[in-house]
Specification:
The complex is a heterodimer. Chain A is an all-beta fold. Chain A is built from no helices and twelve strands. In chain A, a hairpin with a 2-residue loop joins strand 10 and strand 11 (97-103). Chain A starts with a strand and ends with a strand. Chain B has strands at residues 5-7, 10-13, 19-24, 31-37, 43-50, 53-57, 65-68, 75-79, 88-95, 104-105, 109-113. Classes of the chains: A mainly beta, B mainly beta.
Chain lengths: 113, 114
């Protein structure tokens, strides 16, 4: 079945540091890939997405590139801010099921001033 | 900005009791979902709902669970006889379409079964 594996947290960085959160997947067909973010006390929000190989999703300075050859969708940001502190979830929907998102476990990011 | 609204934000119930979690999806969305997240674990799909019927459900979604769209705006998840292991954060989501479209999530209801 479909699965998403993302790097274990928590991740603690200083402001302006470079961020990478690794995500790899297993899926049937050609999945669409997503990063969701959950700020403290809030629901899940879509951060970015990519629907086909080599697409790059980007938003709020975050980027992730759909790499079919390595089945990866790593999240990166060049310079994190304190306000980026949140839990980040990698997820996919696959050709086997257009309806459901399959999530990774989530990675807690804390950015210190 | 339109949003998905869930109530209550926190519910405590005794084991064996029935609970109903409520959600108001975004008004022009056609697809509705429930997910749950047990503390420290993955967000897991429970069920999707379209055109007044279940489209897909996971193995978690057994006979104890049911969903309903009673009045064209609310979308509810009922757990008939709660167990301790049902304690989790339950998220409602809705989307306009299927493949590749964004699912908008509510803030979640934290269910605690004691």
């Amino acid at each position: 079945g479909d699965s998403v594996t993302q790097m274990e947290g928590p991740v603690t960085l200083s402001e302006e540091a470079f961020l990478t959160i690794n995500c790899t997947y297993t899926a049937t067909g050609y999945p669409s890939l997503f990063w969701y973010v959950q700020y403290p006390g809030e629901g899940l929000q879509l951060l970015l997405k990519a629907t086909k190989a080599d697409d790059k999703g980007s938003n709020k300075g975050f980027e992730a590139t759909y790499r079919k050859e390595t089945t990866s969708f790593h999240l990166e940001k060049g310079s994190v801010q304190v306000s980026d502190s949140a839990v980040y979830f990698c997820a996919l929907t696959s050709g086997g099921s257009n309806y459901k998102l399959t999530f990774g476990k989530g990675t807690l990011l804390t950015v210190n001033p | 900005e339109p949003e998905v609204t869930q109530t209550p934000s926190h519910q405590v119930t005794q084991m064996g009791q029935e609970v109903i979690l409520r959600c108001v999806p975004i008004s022009n969305h056609l697809y509705f979902y429930w997910y749950r997240q047990i503390l420290g674990q993955k967000v897991e799909f429970l069920v999707s709902f379209y055109n007044n019927e279940i489209s897909e459900k996971s193995e978690i979604f057994d006979d104890q669970f049911s969903v309903e769209r009673p009045d064209g705006s609310n979308f509810t998840l009922k757990i008939r006889s709660t167990k301790l292991e049902d304690s989790a954060m339950y998220f409602c989501a809705s989307s306009e379409a299927l493949r590749g479209s964004e699912a908008f999530f509510g803030q979640g209801t934290r269910l605690t079964v004691v």
